[in-house]
Specification:
13% strand; four-stranded antiparallel sheet; DNA polymerase, domain 1; 354 residues; Phenylalanyl-tRNA Synthetase, Chain B, domain 1; alpha+beta; single chain; flat
Length: 354
Amino acid sequence: MVKKIKIEIVDEIEKLMYSNLSINPGEAVGIVAAQSLGEPGTQMTMRTFHYAGVAEQVPTGLPRLIELVDAKKTPKKSMMEIYIKKEFYNDEKDLEKIAQEFEATYLADVAKVSENFEKKMLKLKLKRDKMESLGISDMHIISILKKNKFKFKVKGNKILITLKDKLLKKKKLTYGDVRKITLSLKGMMLKGIKNIEKAFVVKDKNDEFFIRTNGSNLKELFMHPKVDKSRLYTNSINEIYSFFGIEAARNAIVREIKQVMDMQNLTVDIRHIMLLADAMTSDGVVKSVGRHGLSGEKAGVLARAAFEETVKHLVESSVYGESDRLVGVTENIIVGQTMPVGTGTVLLKHKTRL
């Protein structure tokens, strides 16, 4: 009797979890997924939300969704979530110190740089208060100037730099060269991690503290000894792809789109988002959905021409003698045939009796 009940329960679970959720053969899953994502996309507002602790606004809603499906190389506002290993901190104050270590500090942040084009000289006026708060000493700046082979004199809180003509491997420096040296000097990094503009300590849903940053540098932070590598995350899909590979990028696309939908209180089945992410990453690289990606690389000439740049696709296909086998939905609608989806996938022959 017990065995019979167990079998019935297993059958019921199989029915609920598999049979009732399976897709019918010939179902146009791409179109269903496109509707599922596209319709809520039209309902999205252009509002943006503040991520806790981040001063600048990070794009959410429709701007972020467009950024993701267009496979932009770098997000408008890149951001990272960094969890620190437990042995390196006791409380929030310890984490704030670590966050300060991550922030990139440049020479322009702690010194005012002015130029004298006639004498080919640069003057650095040090901001002592800022230097003290960031833990940067005069010797730190002097060692960097020595490393870059600058000729200089120190007078109190001022450093006078004399530019030598051979500094840029030129016989004589022009005014433009002086400006180039000034800009490179301002951009010299004194401490921290490149591209990390700001770092804040925030709490997650489980009341655990972590560091959120403005800017992203996955490679350097992954190598940092204090960082918990298993929970390191960036919203830059391209950075994840180049460092961890295509499968990680695919998972990141799913997570990011899901997060956009959740923030707008829009319920979209995760499988539709997964299908989009699979399509974007199926060739081993992250591709956009538009004319430079999936839509522009469709197998059928008519399908490509129906989307954008109609004349270009038709001319190119004529030049190369391409043929269209009419296997997709779009091209069959154009020629007025039954689409190969749903009942259109079935071919029937009627045999008449004489």
